[in-house]
User: What shape does this take?
Amino acid sequence: MTKWRPHPRIRVVAIGLHWRGGRLLVAEVRDDGGRIKGVRPLGGEIEFGESWRAALVREFNEELGIDVSVVGEPLVIENIFVHEASTGHEVMFIAEVAFPDALSPARSASTSARTMESKSSRAGSTLPISTWRAGRGSIRRG
Assistant: This one.
């Protein structure tokens, strides 16, 4: 297993919030032992010369193979965090995204690494992205 560490510089990232039925699509964040440390909405780094909107659409296309629509303007926050004793620093553009209307629940992600965390009656369990697309399971909106 590759051990991820925060970059030693400030990163600018675009993060997408996809809600369905009061549930948020997220990916797991694991510690070096493989234990779930937390969850994070999907997204990634903005490339030089790229707008935050274009980066957000690109990230969802790369990760899930779908073209999302960005809904509204972003919330911009600074995130300084520690992961496995290494400090990370990000400026985050966070916006809601909508999946295409014609997205078939039967279509599955190319990787099983994309999962969501259930905070409902089965707290701590994970489900594959295909389950999310079918509308079953994730974090509930508080």
